[in-house]
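Internal tracking record. Fields below are filled automatically when a chain is submitted to the structure queue. Please do not edit lines marked as system-generated. If the sequence contains nonstandard residues, flag them in the REMARKS field before resubmitting.
Queue: standard
Priority: normal
Entity type: single polypeptide chain
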Amino acid sequence: MVTGYLGECEALSCMLYRTKAESDEVDRAMAKMRAAVDNGATNVSGFPVPDHPAVSIGPAAQSSFFGWAAYFHSHGYVVITGKASNQCRSKNSLCFDRMGDLKPVSINGASAPS
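SYSTEM-GENERATED OUTPUT FOLLOWS
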């Protein structure tokens, strides 16, 4: 079980951060990169991206159900139960498209930390 702040949980990206502030900081950095690409930039490697700890949420066995439930919990604190994986944490491996640290089983709302 992990608890944290879930921002947007989209088809190819679903991250759980410790706090809303950390999620927002990453979202702002990514928005600047997307804007640069939209304006013709071909190299965004120089854009700073905050290095906040996060858990990548992979697709669930019942991925359509989890995606639907995550939609209603986005932009809020949640508890996600699932099976942990180190598949994408290997130094020899790079994962894309929602290959996550956690394969979710359930998601429930949680209180913000005090």
